[in-house]
Amino acid sequence: MIDMTLKNEKNWLNGKTKRTTDSLTILHRLSGLTLAVGPSAAFFLRSSPHNENTVPYLDNHKVTKVFPEFCLGYYLHRLDLQFNFVYRSLKSELDAYDFSQVAKRQALTFEIYKFICDYNGFDAFVGSAVSYEWLYVSETNQSGFTSIEKYNGVKPGITFGWDIRPNRLQIFYLRTNLRYFPNLNVKMNDGKNVFFDQLEFNFIQLVIFPERLLSAKRVITPN
Predict the structure, then answer these.
(1) Percent of the chain with pLDDT over 90
(2) Which domains does the chain have, with CATH numbers?
(3) What is the C-alpha radius of gyration for the chain, rounded to an integer number of angstroms?
(4) Helix (H, G, I), strand (E, B) or coil at 166
(5) Nearest-CA neighbor of 194 among 206, 204, 202, 185?
(6) Sign of the torsion formed by the C-alpha atoms of 179, 71, 109 and 90
(7) Entry pTM
(8) Once rounded to an integer, what is the mean pLDDT over residues 80-100?
């Protein structure tokens, strides 16, 4: 067992953590920019009628390769509210009998979510999102011919997850995100869809408050 917050227990119990939090809240010092990055994967939730109709031996996309997720956000301390712009690029490939299919998705998402409960330092959140999506499907058949179909547009979704947040004063937190965007699809040349309905799972994300980091350095830097 590794406990990295044990050194903060004394201040939590004697009330110093709360007093510091209250003081910095009045000074508006706990709201600010956030930067985050972490590894993610996405799980396909629906089978594709196009594959079943055209290439039934190809199976369906199930999970993407692991990809990085990048976030630029702003945190409002009083409301315990997080705003994020999130970018990710993901890809899945299938091949069988000299036929291959590549499904790619790029997404730039704006999301707002609120922290709703704190269970021993695990702070759950839930919110809504709107995303601009670039969807792309390419297929190469046995004769080497490649066809490409695309979709670009805006789609709504939901975001939920939790932070590992022993207090609200830290310079960084660890976060787990899950996102769901329904009705993502690309219409293929046979009139049927390849679905991109996915549950995105960000395993663990490092969230940094750069303004808090700079403030801490100013405090400890001698004149």
Answers:
(1) 55
(2) 30-220 (2.40.160.20)
(3) 22
(4) coil
(5) 185
(6) negative
(7) 0.80
(8) 93
